[in-house]
Amino acid sequence: MPRKPGSRPRQGPVFKVSSCDCKDCVAACLNSPGWFMPGGVKALANHLNLDVPTLFKKFLAVGVTAMPDGSLRHGVMPHKMRDGKKPGGVWTLAELAQPGRCVFFDRGKCTIYPVRPYECARMIHDGKSMAVKLRRHIVKAWTPAALKPYAELTGQRLYGAPPRKRGR
Ligand code: SF4
């Protein structure tokens, strides 16, 4: 769609979709699954023929990340297999710092590859700062409205990003 006269182009980094099963990607699958964009959860639910609440309770979790000012932001990710923790919960920063295999990683492969999380599909191989930018980009999409269904499902207060201002 053409931009309106005088409007500014959308700003922000562009993260290209990558496709590989290199050791960096496998390490992420074994230690720290990538986060979904809000619309990605619905796409996965459709792919697995589940409704979103059932998908969340069986296979997903709420993750958290710390912002530069120390505030916390939540988002949705695949469940991590560790310590008997069940899917459908909210992870703390300390829990997320511990490695755990993604619930969708089986026999060396991603079992939801066509609808894998946004962050997995744009795996950053060359620099921690770009990986941080990618996570912050995803976090911006997890507004309070996007998190509301998961706050209801978990019964916990979740912290979303403030809505983007128009023109940004
Ligand atoms: S969703 Fe797929 S690509 Fe992403 S961490 Fe899990 S197994 Fe790996």
Strand content: 5-15%
Rg (C-alpha, Å): 16 Å
| List of distinct ligands in this structure | iron/sulfur cluster
Mean of all residue-level pLDDT scores: 87
Note the gap between the termini. 17 Å
List the helices and strands in order. HHHEEEHEEEHHH
Low-confidence residue ranges: none
Tell me how many strands there are. 6
Shape: globular
Helix % is: 25-40%
User: What is the count of helical runs?
Assistant: 7
Described by strand count, sense and barrel closure, the largest sheet is: 2 strands, antiparallel
Question: How do the strands line up in the largest sheet?
Answer: 1-2
Tell me the count of domains: 1
Indicate the structural class. alpha+beta
State the gist of this model.
This protein is of the alpha+beta class.
Lay out the secondary structure:
Elements (H helix, E strand, L loop, with lengths): L22 H9 L6 H11 L3 H8 E7 L5 E7 L1 E2 L11 H4 L4 E2 L2 E2 L2 E2 L7 H4 L6 H14 L2 H11 L14
Antiparallel strand pairs: 1-2, 3-4, 5-6
The structure holds iron/sulfur cluster.
Iron/sulfur cluster (SF4) binds next to helix 1.
What does this 3D model show about the protein?
By secondary structure, the chain is an alpha+beta fold. It has one domain. The protein contains 7 helices and 6 strands; from the N terminus they run αααβββαβββααα. The protein has a two-stranded antiparallel sheet with strand order 1-2. A two-stranded antiparallel sheet has the order 3-4. A two-stranded antiparallel ribbon has the order 5-6. A hairpin with a 5-residue loop joins β1 (60-66) and β2 (72-78). The protein is globular, with a radius of gyration of 16 Å. The mean pLDDT is 87. Iron/sulfur cluster binds next to α1.
